Amino acid sequence: MPSLPRLSGAGLGFRRDLLPDLEAALESGFPRSIDFFELAPENWIDMGGRHARALRAFTERFTFVCHGLSLSLGGMTPLDQVLLRKIKAFMAQHRMPLYTEHLSYCSDQGHLYDLMPIPPTWEAVKYVAGRIRQTQDILEQKIAIENASYYVAAPIGEMDEADFVNAVLAEADCWLHLDVNNIYVNSVNFNFDPVAYLKRMPAERIVYMHMAGHYQEAPDLIVDTHGAPVIDPVWQLLDTAYDLLGTHPTCLERDFNIPPLAELLPEVQAIAAAQARHRPASQPRAAA
Questions:
Q1: Which domain range does residue 190 map to?
Q2: CATH of the domain at 145
Q3: Which residues contact 104 (CB under 8 A, 6 or more apart)?
Q4: CA distances, 101 to each of 17, 135, 174, 231 (Å)
Q5: Three-class SS of residue 46?
Q6: 133 in a structural domain
Q7: pLDDT digits (tens, 9 = 90+) for 20-79
Q8: Is the pTM of this model over 0.90?
């Protein structure tokens, strides 16, 4: 397997709402806790004007990765090759080393505007892995797949979610984008042990991790909004993930109800602090 993309430290989702604060920080001294940024390419491709210039100012200074929203790897409609070729050009233009997508589907003769679970069968493993390999052929690089949150259980299959993730990774020979919050959300919604799930993830395939907040609608129902601060049980699960799988780069997602940068920085700093607690003395934190 080729080497993992060069990525380290704590990251933050790059959102247009944050641009004024981020641009001001460039002038006054940028926070050292932010090592990389993540963006959804669908929200930036073909964009011109001030926002395009602002993005260029940041991609010239910082590492960025692409986290896709709409490829629908598990969908039945053909892969959007036009979108993939635009993503490839966009990544080359901004020197972005990595593209990741959700292990789910979000289309059925149209966009469903939600991430739906894929039936965990061997037939689905072969099908999704083929679409991942096709994506990798078009982009001419490996991608990573993210474990998705969901609210409706997939039809009963031949394996559980953790086995399905591992089977797709092996069949497609791709990387893993491990979302710690999604594991917690699903563990509450479907009553499983999140630590047992973590223990079954292949550390050698992890490119980076996600942290996010959510909305607790009921004791047994969490909605993955990315619209609130990270809660203590998810921070504890991140510590466990670092213990079990190693101290991987980790990005804070905030996609809704976005506060000022000053209110998000403590969470990015908390990621960096957790990494420092788990990092061997011989593995210094990358310079900002």
A1: 10-278
A2: 3.20.20.150
A3: 72, 73, 74, 115, 116, 117, 118, 148, 150
A4: 23, 10, 11, 24
A5: coil
A6: yes
A7: 999 999 888 889 899 999 999 999 998 888 889 999 999 999 999 999 998 989 888 899
A8: yes
Q: Which of 172, 242, 237, 240 lies closest to 208 in space, CA to CA?
A: 242
Cα→Cα distances 58→7, 26, 98, 184, Å: 16, 9, 17, 32
| DSSP summary character for residue 41 | G
CB 86 within 8 A of CB 46: yes
Alpha-carbon span 222 to 89, nearest angstrom: 37
Q: Which helix (H) or strand (E) holds 218?
A: strand 215-218
CA 145/CA 174 separation, integer angstroms: 7
Question: Does the residue 3 lie in any domain?
Answer: no
Any idea what DSSP says for residue 282?
T
Q: How far apart are CA 157 and CA 168, in angstroms?
A: 14
CA 223 to chain centre: 17
- Whether the CB-CB separation of 37 and 82 falls below 8 Å is answered with no
Domain annotation covers residue 150:
yes
Which residues have a Cβ under 8 Å from the Cβ of 139 and sit 6 or more positions away? 84, 87, 88, 91, 99
Q: Which residues of 165-180 are buried (b: 16+ CB within 10 A; e: fewer)?
A: bbbbbebbebbbbbbb
pLDDT value of residue 150 = 85
**Residue 1 within a domain:** no
Q: What single-letter amino acid sits at 23? A: E
Number of domains in the chain: 1
Q: C-alpha distances in angstroms, 278 versus 96, 108, 241?
A: 27, 43, 10
Low-confidence ranges of the chain (pLDDT < 70): 1-2, 106-115, 154-156, 280-288
Helix axes 19-28 and 49-59, enclosed angle (nearest 10): 50
DSSP-based three-state secondary structure for 198? helix
Predicted local confidence at residue 24, as pLDDT: 94
